[in-house]
Write a structure and sequence with these properties.
D-Maltodextrin-Binding Protein, domain 2; 2 domains; 12 helices; globular; Tripartite-type tricarboxylate transporter receptor subunit TctC; Bug_dom1
Length: about 325
């Protein structure tokens, strides 16, 4: 018994010493999607901004596959020492409903570090769509029930999730057309092969600015300050009461990571979120930096719990699952 207590004491002391010296080697932020996408861009911008306040090198590792769940699993099972972190988006809240079997528990296998940003979404259509505003689009949808194609970037993607809520809010079933990424979905929308799509401003802004698609509204409850989108109504005020969808990003560590390490990472994150260059880069993506209580671990987790409660019923009602 004495030997066991001694071993535990030594282990605790070792963890404490390691936490005090953290970080003494590079910190890896796992991105659960391929390089080049919106989440990868956010991670690389954050890595640059958080490096100085954290006091060490930060590198990005892309672990793509299975709708992001492979990357989540890798971090959930990583050593809880603060050297492997996860930057994840709304999939943290939607995967529990989308996937029948997950190798991690979204609420219990991670330490929540803070929310980073929120990315608004826009409802867009092919350029040949006859409707010129949301009221006209609603009439067109009503007149074309059973013939409407709604594109998305794949199961679990932001466009898929927004499309689910859009159909439920409109009380109309549309033919969902999943693509392997936003690129091919946008190409077919511009070409008129599909009718509608709801996607992040990071993917739609340039197309709207170039008049390559028609835009009908933003998914936030407030108007956006982005010049090309500032005159668009919110879908809430356009008639879809309560419609509010953003694609957010948060930072996580494996469960059991020492509190001293978590506190240091959270402090560095808060400093990074005030970095002028980081703001500039995120604004170029159409993202809004979080500046409220959700940058704190407890409020971050409460927010994700609410998101799980919001998305779970919508996904289950649609009956669209992945193995």
């Amino acid at each position: 018994m004495k030997r066991l207590l001694t071993a535990v004491t030594l282990a605790t002391m070792a963890l404490g010493a390691a936490a005090q010296n953290y970080p003494d080697k590079p910190v890896t932020i796992v991105v659960p999607f391929a390089a080049g996408g919106p989440t990868d861009k956010v991670a690389r911008d954050l890595a640059e901004a958080i490096r100085k306040p954290l006091g060490g090198q930060v590198i990005i590792e892309n672990v793509a596959g299975a709708g992001g769940t492979l990357g989540h699993t890798k971090v959930a099972k990583a050593s809880p020492d603060g050297y492997t972190l996860l930057l994840a988006h709304v999939a943290m809240a939607t995967a529990p409903a989308l996937y029948r079997k997950l190798q991690y528990d979204a609420l219990n296998d991670f330490e929540y570090l803070g929310l980073i940003n929120e990315v608004p979404m826009t409802l867009i259509a092919r350029p040949t769509m006859p409707a010129n505003n949301f009221a006209e689009l609603a009439k067109w949808v009503d007149a074309n029930k059973g013939k409407i194609n709604l594109a998305n970037a794949g199961l679990g993607s932001a466009s898929h999730l927004c499309g689910l809520l859009f159909q439920q809010s409109m009380k109309v079933d549309m033919t969902t057309v999943p693509y392997k990424g936003t690129g091919p979905a946008m190409t077919d929308l511009i070409g008129g092969q599909v009718d509608l799509m709801c996607d992040q401003t990071t993917n739609t802004l340039s197309q709207i600015e170039g008049n390559k698609v028609k835009a009908y509204g933003v998914t936030t409850t407030k108007h956006l300050s982005i010049p090309a989108l500032s005159k668009l109504p919110t879908l809430d005020e356009a008639g879809l009461k309560g419609f509010n969808v953003t694609i957010w990003h948060g930072l996580y560590a494996p469960k059991g990571t020492p509190k001293a390490v978590l506190d240091k990472v959270n402090g560095a994150l808060k400093t990074a979120l005030k970095d002028a260059e980081f703001h500039k880069r995120e604004e170029a993506l159409g993202a809004v930096i979080v500046g409220d209580a959700r940058v704190n671990p407890a409020e971050h987790k409460k927010f994700v719990e609410a998101e799980i409660a919001k998305w779970g019923p919508a996904i289950k009602a649609a009956g669209q699952y992945a193995d």
